[in-house]
Design brief:
alpha/beta; Rossmann fold; Alpha-Beta Plaits; 2 domains; four-stranded antiparallel beta sheet; 10 helices; 29% helix; 27% strand; disordered C terminus; ATP-binding; ABC_transporter-like_CS
Length: 334
């Protein structure tokens, strides 16, 4: 496997009269390998969009090394721009143009066959709305159009910043199916989203950024495993007695109104056996597994320093110390 996107030690600062010097990205690393659907997560202000903009040559980096499809970025982006599709931040279009006209202009500018326009409109679910003016589109329809523009060149690498923004649940599912279909056809996808459950469904790898630094990276299942505390949710016919017995067995117990959360349980059968032998009958015994949302909140919690993530074996992992982007018309591939 090869590194389709490689970022090492990226650093970017901004200066303003009002806010002074602000570090947006501070020694950030990112590796996206061929064939991955890679989730890129971070709270607002974490440096996520700045990283994508630096990678695509839209802002200059202070320090760091970046490559896209093996080409040094941003210096050699023109060599690979025809193989990359990207949208970053909110899409912007000419309101009086139709979607078809918008994509046709982009296709002509990028040397893409015009026949491709109808194909991508169908691909994103706008086949029957392509000849309507964009100013009448909803936010979700504009987002679909942005994705269509990124697909015009049949890219090998697709970078999507909040592709589900403005979509209803049906649209989110369609976007999920589209990303999966693209990945099945060999497209590498880097996708950022605030819909963490969706990222967990469609991504095989994930990188989390907080305060400009990488705080977790790896396969989604391995990142989640690093935060698995072997907890179980327990409901029993005598909850107070169950709590007493489990504490006596030297298990960690957190009592709630109608259930217990028991930690340090390598095998849930231990809870069942401990209570059953004493005549306390278990009504529910459910392993509590971390999801991407809970891990994300723990790593990036407001007002807290990020927790160092753990590897699958439990050992600490040391983390690394409003526009449509079309590379053809932004001067990178002119």
């Amino acid at each position: 496997m090869s590194g389709v996107i490689e970022i090492e030690g990226l650093r970017k600062t901004f200066r303003s009269l009002r806010r002074g010097r602000r570090v947006a990205v501070d020694g950030f690393d990112l590796l996206v390998e061929a064939g991955q659907v890679h989730g890129f997560l971070g709270p607002n202000g974490s440096g996520k969009t700045t990283t994508l903009r630096a990678l695509l040559g839209l802002v200059g980096a202070d320090e760091g090394r970046m490559t896209v499809l093996g080409a040094r970025a941003p210096e050699r982006l023109p060599q690979v721009a025809g193989r990359v599709g990207a949208i970053v931040e909110s899409p912007q279009f000419f309101g009086n143009f139709t979607a078809y006209r918008t994509l046709r202009l982009l296709a002509v500018a990028g040397g893409v066959p015009v026949s491709r326009v109808d194909e991508v409109l169908e691909q994103v679910g706008l086949g029957d709305r392509g000849h309507e003016r964009v100013k009448g589109y909803s936010l979700g329809m504009k987002q679909r159009l942005a994705v269509a523009s990124a697909l015009l060149k049949r890219p090998e690498l697709l970078i999507l910043d909040e592709p589900a923004n403005g979509l209803d649940p049906a649209g989110i599912r369609e976007m999920r199916d589209l990303v999966r279909a693209l990945a099945a056809n060999g497209v590498t996808v880097l996708v950022s989203s605030h819909i963490l459950a969706e990222i967990q469904l469609i991504c095989d790898h994930v990188t989390i950024i907080s305060r400009g630094r990488r705080v977790a990276a790896g396969r989604v299942d391995e990142v989640l495993a690093g935060f698995d505390r072997n907890e179980c949710l327990v409901r029993a016919d005598d909850l107070a007695r169950a709590e007493e017995l489990l504490r006596a067995a030297e298990l960690t117990v957190t009592a709630h109104a109608d259930h217990l959360v028991v930690g340090g349980v390598p095998d849930p059968a231990l809870v069942n056996r401990t209570l059953g032998e004493q005549g306390v009958w278990v009504r529910e015994l459910t392993p509590v597994r971390p999801d991407l949302e809970s891990v994300f909140l723990e790593l990036t919690g407001a007002g807290q320093h990020p927790t160092v993530p753990r590897q699958a074996d439990g050992t600490p992992h040391d983390p690394a110390a409003g526009q449509l982007i079309d590379l053809d018309i932004r001067g990178v591939d002119a």
